[in-house]
Amino acid sequence: MVKEISKYMLPLLLIFPIAQSTPTTPPPEEVVQPQEVRPLPGQLDTVPTFNSNSPELVLKEGILLSTFPPDGKKVPTAHLNFPFRGRFDIFAHHVARAEPPENLRSLYLGIILHNPGSEAVKVNIWQGASYLSQPDAPFIQLPSFSPNPLGTIFAGPGDRVMSDVLMGRRQEIFPAQIEIPPKQSRMLLNLPIPVQGLTPPLNGRSTLIRLQSNGTVYAASLAMFARVNPDGSERSPTLEEWQNLLDNGDLAGPRDKTPTPLEETGKPRIYGRVAGVASGSRWRALLVDNPKARYLTIPQPGQVFSYALSTLHGGTLGTGQIQSSPMLVRYPDTAYRAHGNYGIQYNLKLPLYNNTQSRQTVSVSIQTPLKENQLVKPGLRFLSTPAREVFFRGTVRVRYKDEQNQPQTQFVHLVQKRGQPGEPLVSLNMKAGDRSLVEVDFLYPPDATPPQVLTVSTQAESR
């Protein structure tokens, strides 16, 4: 999430070295958009999210994240002892690389569920998707704004997974229900991250699953290299082999950078990657003038206001609001919070009200301003030419009523670079005294970099 050159990116940089321009191109100018930035109303729900994202790059097989009890385990500190019951989510995002380059065995990602009780437990899978970078969802260049009604536009596995879940899909690899007998375990996922035939030999897999259990279960994500058949071909690990790794294995490696404390230390901030159970799956917000109001008065003509999205320590855009999910349990060398809220759904309702005496054109957009904690100037800072780094790449659902009062649902794929103002998701022509409900939904995508804002603007009156 913190943009830095990680070890597994070095081969890419060797193949595609960063071009040196002569003479040096002047940096893009900053453009300040005067506007009020408001904290986002509402809050995260309390649905626990199993969040397996550290180590991101896995070179040594082992336990990625275990919420099992430590009793009877060879490495008790690898098990966080957190039971799930009822609604919970599972998010996992990991990368495999051939190390050394000639070792082209596939790395398998296993997610195991265990029923510790004396009666069978049924686990329903509401939505779920799991995709590889190659060949399922390569990182390709896409326009900044693309209608995406079928969910066929994506770049990167996290982008594709979030789009599927937003559209309510359950990929065919997942059954509708898993029944786990008493004291037994079942594999929820047992899929490879292959590197053979890729240049460089590097691949990633992103997964998000929404579940509901009628009894207590424990969960673990595990990494194991493919087992080899007598004829030299690969096979997936068996349930018994996964169970043995869970009982006798240690944490997978190499370990990611240890995060710095959340309080300002004067040192460069390292957010770290997440491995633990975060509190929250969805942020519902009703955007109104004040807690007692039932509508959101549109800005005056030519004016703009924004609501902060996915704010985090050191990046609150002047609101002082931290939206990062708190961690219920975590490993000591991993992130203190689920910075970036990967896989968390934002449900935002805007009951717009035109309190002026004339017709107004009002637009709603998502924007990616320059990250700030306190606003240096009264407004958000953008770049005249957006930077090269993509900071948001994902599908957004917008619901509203058109001028004929017909309900509309649109899915739009956005690609925004650092400092990019973005284009309107919807523009409404509102009569004097008119009210119009706009709903914006998206799952915060992996590989995005927070924060963003949701912006409401009223077009200036023509003279």
Portion in helices: under 10%
Low-confidence parts: 1-22
Query: Overall mean pLDDT score?
Result: 93
Overall number of structural domains: 2
| Biggest sheet details | 12 strands, mixed
CA gyration radius, whole angstroms? 23 Å
Q: What is the general shape?
A: globular
What share of the residues does DSSP label as strand, in percent? 35-45%
Number of helices: 3
Structural class: mainly beta
Record field, number of beta strands? 29
Report on the architecture of this protein.
The chain is mostly beta strands and 463 residues long. The protein folds into 2 domains: 34-42 and 281-322 and 329-458, no CATH class; 55-248, no CATH class. Helix content is 6%, strand content 41%. It has 3 helices and 29 strands. Strands 4, 5, 6, 7, 8, 9, 11, 12, 13, 16, 20 and 21 form a 12-stranded mixed beta sheet that branches. Strands 3, 10, 17, 18, 22, 25, 26 and 28 form an 8-stranded mixed beta sheet that branches. A 5-stranded mixed beta sheet has the order 2-19-29-23-27, with no helix packed on it. The radius of gyration is 23 Å and the shape is globular.
List keywords for this structure.
mainly beta, globular, 463 residues
Write a brief structural summary:
The chain is mainly β.
